[in-house]
Amino acid sequence: MALGLSAARLAKGHSTQWVQRHVKDKYVQRAKEDMYRSRAAYKLKQLDQKHGFLKSRYNIVDLGCFAGGWSQVALQRTYARGGLRDGMIIGVDLLPMDPLVNHHFIQGDIRHAATSRRVVEALGERRAHVVLSDMAPKMTGSRHDDHAASVDLCREAAKFAESVLEEGGWFVTKIFAGTFADSFRSELTTRFGKVRIAKPDASRAESREL
Fold first, then answer.
1. Would you call 24 a catalytic residue per the annotation?
2. How far, in Å, CA of 117 to CA of 48, rounded?
3. Of residues 43, 174, 194, 199, which has the active-site annotation?
4. What is the pLDDT of residues 70-101, one digit of tens each?
5. Residue-wise pLDDT tens digits, 139-194
6. Closest listed residue to residue 118, CA positions, set 172, 160, 156, 168
7. Which ranges of 40-142 does DSSP label H, i.e. alpha helix?
8. Which of 32, 69, 73, 93 has CA 20 to 30 A from 104's CA?
């Protein structure tokens, strides 16, 4: 698995040094041991340990869910079992994903109305307790352009979250640090009751993700 990931990353332009550092990363190694599909699972676990937004029987929508690490954590912490009274985990991504037990996957672009409708239909009469977004733009190599594209994705995710969240629900999103981060946070304060910025320990020190 690690070799396949490394080869794929390297093919997309990462250096040999990056691949070697990635393979030796303690969270990559832990993910293999704990059967998580990505090291990102530990970012969500650490955020939840601090803020406590994943609870038993909660309904969760996971945007940008590929390869499934965040959805795996959500399944574990909500004890989703697929019953009518159990919590429901819905994952959305542009890429196809290998199935997870008791996980409802929708392939599509959440910016498109047809995809949003499919999520609403899957929820049925439920409202979401939490909307997660680990979406990232297609990287161009320009820090400014990638940051701006990240903010645009976050806006789309927030717009969708408002349409499906119950009152008092949580919206948890990844954003790249940069010029527009503070203004986007100000936007969120007008739409949500409380806004917090966090960088979990599992996020690499050099990463611009918040």
1. no
2. 28
3. 174
4. 999 999 999 998 766 789 999 999 999 999 99
5. 898 999 999 999 999 999 999 999 999 999 999 999 988 899 999 999 999 999 99
6. 160
7. 40-51, 69-78, 113-123
8. 32
Cα separation, 31 vs 57, whole angstroms: 25
Peptide bond into 2 cis (omega under 30): no
Residues 6+ apart with CB under 8 A from 27: 39, 42, 202
CB neighbour list of residue 95: distance below 8 Å, 6 or more residues apart? 66, 107
In whole angstroms, give the CA distance from residue 2 to residue 23: 7
Query: What's the pTM value of the predicted model, to 2 decimals?
Result: 0.88
* 205's tokens: 């020190």
CA-CA distance, 195 to 68, in Å (whole number)?
26
What six digits make up the tokens of 81? 């079992």
Rounded CA separation 23/67 (Å): 17
